[in-house]
Amino acid sequence: MKNSNRFVLILILGLLSAIGPFSIDMYLPGFPAIANSLHTSVDAVSYSLSSFFVGICLGQILIGPLLDRFGRKRPLVIGLIVYLFASIGCALSTSIEMLIVFRLFQALGGCVSMVAPRAIVRDLFPVEENAKVLSLLILVLGVSPILAPTVGSLVIAHWGWSWVFVLLAVVTLAILIALILWLPESKQPDPTFSLRPKPILASFTTVIKDKQFFTYAFSGGIGSAGLFAYLAGSPFVFMKYYTVTEQQYGWIFALIAAGLISSSQLNNLLLRYYSSEQLMKWSLVVQVTVGILLFAGAAAGLLGLVSTIFLMFLFLSCQGLIFPNSAALSMAPFTKEAGSASALMGAIQMGLGSLASAVIGLLNAQTPTPLAGVMAVCATIGLVVLLFGRRKMDSAATTTDIKEQTLDMIEKY
Prior knowledge:
By secondary structure, the protein is mainly alpha-helical. Helices cover 81% and strands 0% of the residues. The chain has one domain: MFS general substrate transporter like domains (Growth Hormone, Chain: A, Up-down Bundle). It has helices at residues 3-25, 31-37, 42-70, 73-91, 96-110, 112-124, 130-141, 143-159, 162-182, 197-209, 211-241, 246-270, 276-299, 305-317, 319-331, 338-363, 369-395, 404-410. It is globular, with a radius of gyration of 20 Å. The relative contact order is 0.16. Mean pLDDT is 83; it is low at 398-405.
């Protein structure tokens, strides 16, 4: 593949992947404004975030088989059109219930932008390059948590929260045009791929029964649930508990996101010396340690604004190493079922993220302690799943069943 074509491809895939995070991050500074406008509470507004996560989770399960049956491009186009109309619906919402419903449909349409890029990477690049390419996607993807809250806070301050969703629609329209013009079809439609429930369930069953997929998808998914807890709980922690302004929150969010972006690019360098599994395991170890310090400090009342930002920066920086390596390890065993595997992995991640964000809403926290506790628990369970699953793989001699090309990702040559 020519370098120019590679650049354009990775840029488009990165922009597609950014639609989901933009949909989450851009409206976070507007939680208080949305609550005031719709005559509800900030906790109630957080359910619009949970409904988005639920839609992403369910939508990925539906879109995976469609990507394997109709190719990658057609479902992408249709999904983004649905997203456009749902975004306009969000902008026109006059009640919190209306916003929650349109956020669900926005997620159902937009979920294809999260599933398809991983499948396209698996289609077009050698398996041993997948973690590196996914790290490059995170570099493009990483612009969203830096720009989105800041842009969102400026839009909200000048025009109101509903214009955030208008802007999302306009940006997505531009990405849709670029997709139609320049994104190649990486997998031709497969008429033999059945869309009947029984074969689809059989395909998902085959994927989830694969020990390599199960171990890395669930350990990465549970670990990343701490990120979703942070997304749901950080508006309260920073804007209500620490009383920062909407614009200050946007800058804090961008600073913390910069840690995730930097570590994702460090991942490319570290992959020269360490395996994907080694990087994932030690990142989870560090994340658990930081999570415990964050929880203990919050519970003891020892943390101020700066120390809270610092520990959350460290915690989420680990995610830049966990995500690309867990995704690459999960997807490595699959070729024909790459769409289903990507969808199932995304559904696991979003399902667990939805649960974590819902827990944050239900706790109705008055201090940062519950958020810190949920983040620490997610990281700890993720590490336990990884260690236990890897031991099961070893005891069952499953490495003999893993394709030779994936062994280097687990045990560094």
